Amino acid sequence: MLTSVVAGFSLSIALIVAIGAQNAFVLRQGLRREHVVPVVLTCALSDALLIGVGIAGVGSIVAGRPVLLTAIRWGGAAFLLGYAALAARRALRPAALAPADRPPARLGPTLLACLAFTYLNPHVYLDTVLLLGGIAQQHPHRWLFGVGAAGASVLWFAALGAGAYRLAPLLARRRVWQVLDGVIAVVMVAVALALVLG
Asked: Which pLDDT belongs to residue 78?
């Protein structure tokens, strides 16, 4: 039983640590100290839900519908490119990057953006529903495998949000925001291109 939990945790953490759109968003929210706990909970619960869906066998149904996968891929790429443009614009206008100069974002739009980064990204489905869900089927305790995988997600997002929060003193430096937004823009474009080309 413990072997399944450890296997799920290990595979999940290896997949989730790669910097992508969702991680970049959580990092930005943590650095801005805005709605970190709701964002972390939304990401972790979404991963747990998608992992559970994959373990329940829905992954094979989604994989058999190429039209659905294509629609998700192009919609996700368009969303990511739009967000990349916004991040690039912020990076090019460092005068607007100091947190004190900007009103705090409202919770509703922040959570909607978080959900979009989660559910409009086909890589999330590939990693959670298809890959983790498929591998879980090979374990004698597949739901314990899922518990381990979901636990890795909770741990990672909490560490990312809290770790960024501890970097708050750097927020006084506008150059940090400029570099961060520049990196986020590049990551979003790279993920979008990978979706379109791959």
From this structure: 80
